[in-house]
């Protein structure tokens, strides 16, 4: 499997534990996608401090625009390199109250239908990102097989005399 990592992504997952190649390319939105699905698959990675920064001021406006773009994707998620407990306990460098952070996350999930997955740490976020993309790729492969079978069946039955 090949995974595309956005050229603007600064801390790229290596996916060293997985059978995959990482290709760098400019993505329209998000940090990770699949070749051929760049406009339908997007996984955004956030370290906890980056997530908190995205909740304030101009960063919030920019982040909401990104979530709005992601909302139309077939597969979309924000993978967070922290647990929800880390956020609830305020284990980040910001004066923003944990309750306000979590309320913003929940509001964004409802407003944009983009799930926020709290993955515990960076390794958990990488695992989650990989397997979301792998499951999507497998699902697309299965859909293609089913569509191909249906097409062959229609073609075969259309050629038979009555």
Judged by helices, strands and strand pairing, the structural class is alpha/beta
Number of domains: 1
- CATH C-level class is Alpha Beta
Quote the average pLDDT.
Answer: 93
The first-to-last residue Cα distance is 45 Å
Compressed to H and E, one letter per element, the order equals: EEEEHHEHHEH
Any guess at the CATH architecture? 3-Layer(aba) Sandwich
Please report the number of helical segments: 5
Helix amount, in percent?
40-55%
Tell me the radius of gyration. Answer: 19 Å
| Percentage of residues in DSSP E strands | 15-25%
Biggest sheet architecture: 3 strands, mixed
Unreliable spans: none
Strand order of the largest sheet: 2-1-3
CATH topology: Rossmann fold
Overall geometry comes to globular
SS elements, strand count: 6
Structure description:
The chain has 162 residues and is an alpha/beta fold. The chain has a single domain, classed as Rossmann fold (3-Layer(aba) Sandwich), CATH 3.40.50.10130. 48% of the residues lie in helices and 17% in strands. The protein has helices spanning 48-53, 57-70, 84-88, 98-112, 122-159, and strands at residues 2-6, 21-25, 32-33, 41-46, 75-80, 116-118. Strands 2-1-3 form a three-stranded mixed sheet, with helices on one face. A three-stranded parallel sheet has the order 4-5-6. It is globular.
